Amino acid sequence: LQIAVQALQLAELFHSEGGPAEVEEDCCREAVLADEHFQNRSRFEKLAEFCRLVGRDCLGLFIMFGVPGKPKDIRGVMLDSVVKEEQKCRLSGRNALRQFVTSTDSFLPTKDMLESCLGAKNGPKEVGNVYISFL
């Protein structure tokens, strides 16, 4: 099992992607090379493509900070949940993630999420419409 993680603050989902601040963050050579390969794709598409390239044992996980009303919460959202939200609500990845984080009240403890991922023989079990609570 491999978990590819992307960490972001919820406030980032309300700003346009690909601005100068994001370019300044790309200080590593590997990141620049990866950006060239994944040029013209959103961060959500990049994570999905990366997981696809690694294989079916790679899960995408977004770590969210700064949830309105719960600033100390750290929430995890599986890439599969974002994809389902995209399809259900016909939203872009960014908007689907924002919708999921702000409208989902149910959660799993980190231990349960890991058991679900590690305990399944044919890939992770369906966790449903929940986020992962890290705190």
UniProtKB/TrEMBL annotation:
Single Gene Ontology BP annotation: receptor recycling
Name of the protein in question: REP15 protein
Lineage: Eukaryota, Metazoa, Chordata, Craniata, Vertebrata
GO cellular component: endosome membrane; recycling endosome
